[in-house]
Write a structure and sequence with these properties.
Elements: H1 2-25, H2 30-42, E1 46-49, H3 56-66, E2 71-75, H4 82-86, E3 87-94, E4 97-104, E5 111-115, H5 122-125, H6 129-134, E6 136-139, E7 142-145, E8 151-156, H7 169-172, E9 177-180, H8 186-196, H9 207-228, H10 235-247, H11 256-261, E10 262-264, H12 268-284, H13 292-303, E11 308-309, H14 311-315, H15 320-334
Parallel strand pairs: 1-8, 1-9, 2-5, 5-8
Antiparallel strand pairs: 3-4, 6-7, 10-11
Helix pairs in contact: 1-2, 1-3, 1-9, 2-12, 10-12, 10-15, 12-13, 13-15
């Protein structure tokens, strides 16, 4: 058990350093940075929603740089095609004749930032589907494995903005979390103004320091994988997660009103993600056991974007987060959680 205690201390110490370092670069988004660390441990993809110009790209770049991960960015536009992301075969001359060689597109990296993903057509968005779930790409009958670890951080503008396309439900479900990137407050904005005039120092981005970060991040993921099996999740918390997810489905909800307001609920993938996330949260806090409070804290970021509201719910101004709040209340009543 001493070995696991050491791993717990290592991850907790790494997390504290991560928050200290990145909080100096990304001001006013402490909660968001916390969620991104959970996604790092659980190897989950992130969907960031916010208006243009708030710093979503800077956040993704700083996050990848801290862990020493290779980073690439794709600007999604209506004319972007799937092959622009995946890559394609090119014909090459060789001594024994001409051969096709697969040219790897920008998808083949550790962290791929899909900037303004909802500006591309659904056909192009679908190029991400297999990569996000299977961590591989199939092209003309051949399977090409993606680097390990592989993360997609996609940014999207609010759907009300002109020239955007809603993401397919199946793709939305593949995002581990959906996080809102909001305008910073007054004090944070002052800090950003001062930070913009300073030299870019602090986090290592290349050379030996970068490689050291990379190696440390790999060791961290290995420690987490070994430790995760030993984090205690009470049976009551497991049941709470299962009940909560079922309450988001009209055919399983215990509330009559939810049958009218829900078209479809969170998938089993949401339950798996929430189960993994509460373990990660416990470790980040230096605990060996997850709790009901962890479920309450993380459920909105993991489950809300997977809930599809009915037209009637939208007409009454109810979105996924509000419906999830009601589902959580119903689940709490069943397990007598005050």
């Amino acid at each position: 058990m001493a070995d696991y205690e050491k791993k717990l201390e290592t991850i907790n110490s790494f997390y504290m350093d991560y928050m200290q370092q990145l909080s100096r670069q990304i001001l006013g988004h402490t909660k968001l940075l916390d969620r991104l660390f959970i996604a790092f441990l659980c190897k989950g993809n992130i969907l960031l929603e916010g208006a243009p110009g708030l710093g979503k790209t800077s956040l993704a770049k700083a996050w990848a740089g801290y862990f020493g991960l290779d980073f690439r960015r794709i600007q999604f536009t209506p004319d972007l095609m799937p092959l622009d992301i995946i890559g394609s075969n090119i014909l090459e001359d060789a001594k024994d004749g001409r051969h096709f060689r697969f040219y790897k597109g920008p998808l083949f990296t550790n962290v791929l930032l899909g900037d303004e993903i909802n500006r591309a057509t659904p056909k192009t968005q679908s190029a991400f589907m297999e990569a996000m779930e299977e961590k591989r790409v199939s092209f003309l009958g051949e399977v090409h494995e993606l680097p390990d670890p592989f993360y997609v951080i996609a940014t999207q503008n609010p759907i009300e903005l002109e020239g955007t396309y809603p993401l397919p439900e199946a793709q939305v479900d593949r995002f581990f979390m959906k996080l809102n990137f909001r305008m910073p407050d007054f004090s944070s904005l002052l800090g950003i103004m001062e930070l913009s005039g300073q030299s870019k120092e602090g986090l290592p981005v290349e050379g030996e320091h970068f490689l050291a970060r990379q190696q440390k991040a790999k060791e961290l993921l290995k420690s987490w994988k070994e430790l995760a099996e030993h984090i205690i999740v009470p049976e009551r918390a497991k049941s709470y997660i299962a009940r909560l997810v079922l309450e988001t489905h009209p055919e399983h909800s215990s509330m009559t009103e939810m049958k009218r307001f829900l078209s479809y609920g969170a998938s089993p993938r949401a339950a798996i993600a929430l189960y993994s996330a509460i373990k990660a949260k416990a470790v980040m806090d230096g605990r060996v056991n997850a709790s009901m409070d962890d479920v309450d804290e993380l459920a909105p970021d993991i489950c809300a974007h997977r809930i599809i509201a009915s037209f009637e719910a939208e007409a009454e101004g109810l979105d996924g987060r509000e419906l999830l709040k009601r589902a959580m209340a119903a689940a709490r009543r069943e397990y007598d959680i005050s």
